[in-house]
Design goal:
Length: about 180
């Protein structure tokens, strides 16, 4: 009789054990990366969210403390933001060796982005599309998650979309390192 009492518990355990396939769950690559934007004085001024989309990346930028007006913004090929000049971020991200600029017949770089407009109060809240890049590691040709890393740079002036090598956009005024979430 006591053995029959344990039978339902044994059946439940067997059923639950049969539900699993024996393999550990596979972790999907991150579809979103949060980037902290810093100014030349290494103060946090906002953030950018990189989200994988069907047509590349959507970059949502929220920042403050910038000069009002139009500003060039680019992805650079080194994941470093050493102030005050951010030279450590390197040149524009350009895995295909294209010319700079949307208006250049041999452009644009993969790291070229549309200009942003900063409001009179020094804030920007905008969404950018980056069709030529990815944050998925399986897209090795255009991933921003390289061994060297990449960075998002806001420049002091407007990008003219043609001048080589960087659109005559002025000096960098903000930088954020693009890296895999930890």
């Amino acid at each position: 009789m006591k053995r029959l009492m344990y039978l339902p518990m044994l059946l439940v355990i067997l059923v639950l054990a049969a539900c699993g396939d024996g393999e550990a769950p596979v972790q999907e690559p991150s579809q979103e990366i949060e980037v902290t934007m810093m100014n030349n004085e290494e103060e946090e001024i906002g953030n950018a969210t990189f989200a994988e989309a069907d047509n590349g990346l959507t970059i949502t930028l929220e920042a403050e403390g910038l000069e009002p007006g139009m500003h060039g913004i680019h992805i650079h090929n080194a994941g470093m933001c050493e102030g005050p000049d951010f030279d450590s971020a390197g040149e524009h991200y350009n895995p295909t060796d294209a010319a700079h600029g949307f208006d250049h017949e041999d452009g644009p770089h993969a790291g070229d982005l549309e200009n942003i407009e900063v409001a009179d109060d020094g804030t920007v809240s905008t969404e950018l599309n980056a069709e030529s890049v990815s944050i998925l590691e399986e897209n090795l040709d255009n991933t921003l998650l390289t061994d060297e890393g990449t960075a998002l740079i806001i420049h002091s002036g407007e990008d003219d979309y043609q001048t080589q090598p960087s659109g005559d956009a002025g000096t960098p005024v903000a930088c954020g390192v693009i890296s895999e979430p930890k």
